[in-house]
Amino acid sequence: MLELEKVTTGYDTKAILTDISFTIERGDFLGVIGPNGSGKTTLLRVMSKILKPWKGRVSLERRELNEIRHRELAKRMAVVPQRMQELFFSYSVRDFILLGRTPYLRRFQLLESEEDLRIAQEVMEETDTLGLEERNLEDLSGGERQRTIIAQALAQEPEILLLDEPTAHLDINHQVEILNLIKSLNQRRNLTVLMVSHDLNLAAEYCDRLILLKEGRVFQEGSPQDILTYRNIEEVYKTLVVVEKSPVSSKPHVFLVSKRKEEVKKKSR
Questions:
Q1: C-alpha dist (Å) from residue 111 to 105, 106, 117, 200
Q2: Is residue 220 in a domain?
Q3: Cβ(224)–Cβ(249) under 8 Å?
Q4: In angstroms, rounded to a whole number, what is the distance separating the alpha carbons of residues 263 and 257?
Q5: Residue 257, phi then psi, degrees to nearest 5
Q6: In terms of Cα–Cα distance, which of 225, 167, 217, 153 is closest to 17?
Q7: What CATH number has the domain bearing residue 143?
Q8: Separation CA 161–CA 8 (nearest Å)
Q9: Is residue 8 in some structural domain?
Q10: Residue 105 carries which DSSP code?
Q11: Cβ contact 1:44 at 8 Å
């Protein structure tokens, strides 16, 4: 559905991504992980047409993104960036969600149509934000605000959802709440999801496939079990870890090793 072929890009004259190639199939839940500076957010920007490839191509169902108008692309792909919520504090939840209908507005149309209102109602029900519709974003908790942002993205009726750290700054309860919602949308709507995450354990638990970036290149791609090995993590993150199987899901779970334990572990090898 979405394909990157030998993509190199960056800012000014500095390359951030080099020779990136991978494919996302319809209905995938793909996670992108890697240390700070490895190019995760830049990857989202080039996939959403915010940033152009210097070399290579990004294609949506074999059409290059450069050939697709922004309005058309917004009907097929929605992006949930970091810190978006800080820009819309004065909006009510309802009005903020209705902004997701912007790609469908006709020329000179000033008010939302009945179809726009119906879809907004549906996504509020689906994201459990219906009871918040009259409240301002600034009055919401972090979890409520993130659900509202996802509701706005869903109001675009996308086939693909790109998320940049959707659980950043949320407590454990809200992290699970948000990712359960995204996983449910992925399964019920066959929504194709690509999620950037710093949390290796959450990525392992919810994603079907992972891409591990190192210094702007794909270090490895595969299942969470294939990617999250202690050798891969130590090679890319330069940190000693222990990886065990979750007793609940059998997915890999990463445990950090403290400095003192690190010395003991090195001696035991």
A1: 9, 10, 10, 43
A2: yes
A3: no
A4: 9
A5: -110, 125
A6: 217
A7: 3.40.50.300
A8: 22
A9: yes
A10: P
A11: no
148 class by beta-carbon count within 10 Å (0-12 exposed, 13-18 middle, 19+ buried): buried
CA distances from 23 to 5, 130, 201 (A): 9, 36, 23
Say if 111 falls within a structural domain.
yes
As given in the structure block, the two tokens for residue 135 are: 């409240």
Residue 245 lies in a domain: no
Separation of alpha carbons 174 and 146, rounded Å: 9
Tens digits of residue pLDDT in 56-90:
999 999 999 999 999 999 999 999 987 665 555 67
Domain count, the chain: 1
pLDDT tens profile 14-54:
999 999 999 999 999 999 999 999 999 999 999 999 999 99
> Which structural domain, as residue segments, surrounds residue 208?
2-228
> Which amino acid type is present at position 146?
Q
